[in-house]
Amino acid sequence: MANIIPLDGVDAELVEELLDAAFGADRHKRTAYRIREGQEFLPPLSFAALDEDNMLAGTIQAWPVALTDENGRRHPMVMIGPVAVLPDKQNDGYGKALMLATLGGMQGDAVLPQVMIGAPEYYERFFDFTAAHTGGWRCPGPYEQERLLVRSANPAVLPEAGMLGPWDVPK
User: Fold this and answer.
1) In Å, how far are 19, 20, 41, 166 from 15, measured between CA atoms?
2) What number of CA atoms fall less than 13 Å from residue 2's CA on the CB side?
3) Which residue blocks in the chain are alpha helix, DSSP H?
4) How far apart are CA 56 and CA 81, in angstroms?
5) Predicted pLDDT of residue 125
6) Quick one: pLDDT band at residue 1, thresholds 50, 70, 90?
């Protein structure tokens, strides 16, 4: 079984190598990178999975993002991903353990909506993400609309339309 540890305790170079192995060296061109551009991952919600030999097998990151609605109002959200598992460790439960760790860190009444780009048949079935509320949302780059997913305790607060992008918190 996976040993889940905080991601900020893992060497950043090892994380980058794992992400390259899972998604390819050209992964930085993906739309998800543009959505969270310039942001730092959220350490309390980002984890690594170690295998039985205490070697890095997978990672998950959470990011501050916002959906800017048609009136220019920014709605903060948490972007989940990438959920990355080494190719030879996929289907061994690491990804599910990482998702449970991140989502488990988001309990309570004031939890922000979570957004991700992923396989709806998996993330809806196991984690209640859906594309039902994202039909009017846009992303800064190519993406498949049915893979733009959201999870929210109160979907009524979600804007019908808008553009996803980084959450630039004033300093």
Assistant:
1) 6, 9, 13, 21
2) 26
3) 12-23, 31-35, 94-104, 120-127
4) 17
5) 93
6) low
pLDDT given for residue 108 in this prediction: 67
User: Secondary structure of 98-134 in the HEC alphabet?
Assistant: HHHHHHHCCCCCCCCCEEEECCHHHHHHHHCCECCCC
Rounded CA separation 130/81 (Å) = 15
Average pLDDT over residues 156-165: 95
CA-based angle 95:80:90, to the nearest 5? Answer: 15
Environment class of 112 (CB within 10 Å of its CB; exposed 0-12, middle 13-18, buried 19+)? middle
Side chain identity at residue 62, one-letter code: A
Whether the CB-CB separation of 118 and 143 falls below 8 Å is answered with no
